[in-house]
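Re: [ENG-882] Designed sequences occasionally contain unexpected residues at chain ends

Forwarding the minimal case from QA. Structure tokens:
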């Protein structure tokens, strides 16, 4: 036989095997009625072979799912106490040894092929789906916008300052997470600070297509990154780019409380053109001596008239920080920035349990 035919035969065999697997998956996966039991309370009848995440969404149980079910965010974890099959390779990167031993799974990767029981933390059951209307789309810098939504149905969202919500991009139906930047005292409105990612699906929509008056679907609130209001520790806040969003919400609450703790807020940007809400931050510092705002530029431009801190935010943090063994830190921004800043905080003896962060990645 001509050697040239061998790859063709191999590919054909693979295609046939794949078709058989897909057929078997559909055939056996859809046979008979099954039940999805949630927290030993709610019983959902299932006749197709959809994922736990999608079935829960249909039942109005909104699990965080920043990647929309593509197994790239790892946010949609639930405990599967019965059924569910083996952990899939797509779940491996998101589950540590302890989670696997506790049957934690990515709900977007588990199909209901048999009766299945799941446990969902009570804190997630409070998330709702909202119809919202954009009422303001405003430039904060050349690549960052503030978007303000009025909640229509339901018309209020109770969130903790620091938490995030998810928006569904109309037309392409993709879902993305955005930290809530607004005042938690105003449950009728939600603001986001959204930075354009070149080529990014959701941010291109927000920056190029979204207009005041447009309707959008939001789910939330989500997340355990929020102000620990009962704590009396000094606070170090660190943010870069749109990471200012949740810190802004936290600052609203701290002002309401009369700024009872010492707060130092480091904000990392490249150049003057990347700074925003500077006057808002300076006004807070003027009103509350406990609050200090430290913007730092890593690459000031020649034309920048800048007398503030310069250098990487990690270096500025390092040189301006003393003992942090009794402090609490709140970090928001890119995963790289957060990991680098946590190293510096640890050098200054911060305790692991006092470091809170949301990685925007
Ligand atoms: C809990 C949480 C809160 C968040 N809050 C905010 C927020 O308040 N404001 C905000 O602007 N973003 C926030 N994000 C990030 C946001 O969810 C999106 O990931 C981001 O806006 C990009 O979405 P996109 O659809 O435009 O890009 P995609 O279409 O998802 O990505 C396009 C390409 O850009 C890359 N990419 C994705 N995100 C980034 C990034 N940030 N920087 C550089 N490259 C990137 C991707 O790897 C991909 O190659 C948050 C993320 C999380 C997980
Ligand atoms: S929804 Fe993102 S990993 Fe499941």
């Amino acid at each position: 036989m001509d050697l040239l035919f061998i790859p063709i035969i191999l590919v054909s065999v693979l295609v046939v095997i794949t078709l058989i697997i897909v057929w078997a998956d559909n055939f056996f996966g859809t046979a008979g009625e099954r039940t999805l039991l949630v927290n030993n309370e709610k019983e959902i009848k299932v006749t197709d072979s959809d994922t736990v995440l999608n079935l829960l969404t249909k039942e109005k149980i909104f699990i965080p799912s920043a990647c929309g079910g593509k197994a790239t965010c790892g946010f949609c974890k639930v405990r599967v106490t019965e059924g569910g099959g083996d952990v899939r390779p797509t779940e491996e990167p998101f589950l540590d040894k302890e989670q696997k031993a506790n049957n934690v799974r990515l709900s977007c990767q588990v199909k209901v092929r048999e009766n299945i029981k799941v446990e969902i933390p009570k804190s997630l059951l409070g998330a709702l789906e909202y119809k919202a209307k954009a009422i303001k789309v405003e430039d904060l810098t050349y690549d960052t916008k503030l978007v303000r939504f009025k909640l229509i149905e339901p018309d209020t969202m109770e969130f903790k300052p620091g938490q995030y919500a998810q928006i569904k991009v109309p037309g392409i139906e993709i879902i993305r997470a955005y930290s809530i930047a607004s005042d938690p005292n105003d449950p009728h409105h939600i603001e986001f600070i959204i930075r354009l990612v070149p080529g990014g699906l959701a941010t291109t929509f927000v920056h190029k297509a979204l207009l005041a008056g447009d309707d959008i679907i939001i789910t939330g609130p989500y997340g355990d990154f929020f102000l620990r209001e009962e704590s009396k520790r000094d606070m170090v806040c660190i943010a870069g780019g749109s990471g200012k969003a949740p810190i802004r919400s936290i600052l609203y609450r701290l002002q309401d409380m009369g700024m009872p703790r010492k707060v130092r807020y480091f904000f990392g940007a490249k150049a003057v053109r990347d700074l925003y809400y500077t006057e808002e931050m300076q006004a807070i510092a003027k009103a509350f001596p406990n609050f200090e705002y430290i913007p730092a530029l890593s690459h000031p431009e020649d034309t920048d008239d800048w007398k503030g801190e310069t250098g990487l935010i990690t270096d500025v943090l390092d040189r301006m920080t003393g003992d942090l063994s009794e402090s609490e830190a709140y970090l928001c921004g890119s995963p790289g920035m957060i990991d680098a800043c946590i190293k510096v905080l640890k050098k200054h003896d911060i305790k692991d349990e006092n470091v809170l962060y949301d990685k925007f990645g």
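QA comment: On inspection the terminal residues look reasonable. The chain has a mean pLDDT of 92. Proposing we downgrade this to a documentation issue.
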